């Protein structure tokens, strides 16, 4: 098999290769053309992959590809996706996309199909025919849009028809924040419980579940009062997987309040005593800060489940573990900390995202700022 690559633009390449099929009249091999956007190495990798499909007899005429075949193939090859993200995408594909659009040939998918699909999901796309939320429909829409963008880039389809239909509008929901009294009650009722130091750490740092479960003693410097977030763990269908933080700003250094340092020192001493009692020696820098009783690692999902059971037992059923992260952000906002600092501390992708989630909490600080300006202007006004 042969093929060649021709530059079409600054970041565009045309692949030309023999597709393997023979014209039923002339007997000549048919030639296919595919456009790849990216570097020349990206184009070379794609050409090698396509030629291998032809050689193995697995190449398919794009005109016969269905939505099901293309989206499953895309998911199988999406090595850039984190394990949990791929699992979530696969569930969306199998439950929300394939049952409704899967049998349609990719090249025959039209905007009206997408619009009808939205309407069906909103009416009866949930479990046992229940309505599906606009938010979930939006997630499925964005997944299909991403898949079709890849198909359009490779010229399998002429256009991304999903981009021509807007996803359902999602009403913004304000994050429910615990009051100071509720936070105090949580800590009071958790006193002496194994979840107490976890609660203190999340309240004092805003760590995510996966970051907390992967936290090692080597990530903490109690002398300087700082904590370094380098990794997180996620639950996938294949088991636990350690990965980089959720966003590029997720790798960060967090200053620790004295109350958090005190809780961590107590946790370290308790863990040290347990290890000595079991003949395991001193706690090392690679040891988990919060292991399970048998020394194994918490999974984020299991931690949430244990937390929910504990809250119900303590009479605090509305308090989720993630709500403590929100309480941390709320405390920073109430203290007048700027949004950039809060965003960096929480490991958000950008301050804009922080404002999207917590914008309603900045209303009081904005009013206070206006009052301060009024006072300043009044003081400088001529008598």
Could you describe the 3D structure shown?
- The structure is a single chain.
- The protein has a three-stranded antiparallel β-sheet with strand order 1-2-3, with helices on one face. Strands 4-5-8 form a three-stranded antiparallel β-sheet, with no helix packed on it. It has a two-stranded antiparallel ribbon with strand order 6-7.
- 26% of the residues are buried.
- It has 14 helices and eight strands.
- With 383 residues, the protein is α+β, with helices and mostly antiparallel strands.
- Helix 7 (196-205) packs parallel to helix 11 and helix 12 packs across helix 13 (351-358).
- The model has no long low-confidence stretch (mean pLDDT 85).
Distance between the termini: 90 Å
Helix content: 40-55%
Q: What spatial order of strands do you see in the largest sheet?
A: 1-2-3
Number of separate strands: 8
What's the helix-strand series? EEEHHHHHHHHEEEEEHHHHHH
What value does the Rg take, in angstroms?
27 Å
Total individual domains:
3
Class of the largest domain, according to the CATH hierarchy?
Mainly Alpha
- Share of residues in strands: 5-15%
Average per-residue pLDDT, rounded, comes to 85
- Determine the CATH superfamily of the largest domain: Intergrase catalytic core
CATH architectural label of the largest domain: Orthogonal Bundle
Number of contiguous helices: 14
SSE-based structural type: alpha+beta
Multimerization status: single chain
Shape: elongated
Unreliable residue runs: none
């Amino acid at each position: 098999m042969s093929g060649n690559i021709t530059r079409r633009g600054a970041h565009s390449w045309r692949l030309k290769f023999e597709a393997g099929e023979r014209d039923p009249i002339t007997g000549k091999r048919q030639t296919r053309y595919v456009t790849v956007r990216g570097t020349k190495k990206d184009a070379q990798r794609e050409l090698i992959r396509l030629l291998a499909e032809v050689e193995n007899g697995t190449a398919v005429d794009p005109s016969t590809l269905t939505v099901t075949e293309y989206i499953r193939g895309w998911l199988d090859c999406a090595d850039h996706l984190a394990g949990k993200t791929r699992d979530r995408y696969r569930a969306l594909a199998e439950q929300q996309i394939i049952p409704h659009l899967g049998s349609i040939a990719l090249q025959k998918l039209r905007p009206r199909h997408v619009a009808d699909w939205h309407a069906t999901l909103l009416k009866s796309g949930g479990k046992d025919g229940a309505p599906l939320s606009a938010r979930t429909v939006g997630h499925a829409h964005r997944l299909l849009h991403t898949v079709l963008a890849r198909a359009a880039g490779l010229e399998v389809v002429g256009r991304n028809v999903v981009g021509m239909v807007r996803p359902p509008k999602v009403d913004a929901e304000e994050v429910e924040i615990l009051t100071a009294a509720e936070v105090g009650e949580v800590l009071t009722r958790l006193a002496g419980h194994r979840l107490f130091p976890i609660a203190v750490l999340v309240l004092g740092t805003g760590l995510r579940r996966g970051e907390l479960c992967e936290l090692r003693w080597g990530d903490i410097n109690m002398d300087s009062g700082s904590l370094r977030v380098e990794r997180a763990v996620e639950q996938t269908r294949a088991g636990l997987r350690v990965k980089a933080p959720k966003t590029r700003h997720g790798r960060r250094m967090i200053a620790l309040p004295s109350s958090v340092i005190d809780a961590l020192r107590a946790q370290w001493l308790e863990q040290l005593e347990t290890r000595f009692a079991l003949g395991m020696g001193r706690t090392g820098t690679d040891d988990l800060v919060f292991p399970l009783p048998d020394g194994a690692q918490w999974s984020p999902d299991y931690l949430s489940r244990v937390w929910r059971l504990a809250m119900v037992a303590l009479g605090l059923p509305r308090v989720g573990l993630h709500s403590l992260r929100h309480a941390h952000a709320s405390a920073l906002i109430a203290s007048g900390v700027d949004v950039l600092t809060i965003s960096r501390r929480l490991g958000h992708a950008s301050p804009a995202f922080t404002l999207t989630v917590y914008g309603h909490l900045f209303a009081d600080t904005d009013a206070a700022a206006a009052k301060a300006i009024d006072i300043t202007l009044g003081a400088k006004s001529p008598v």
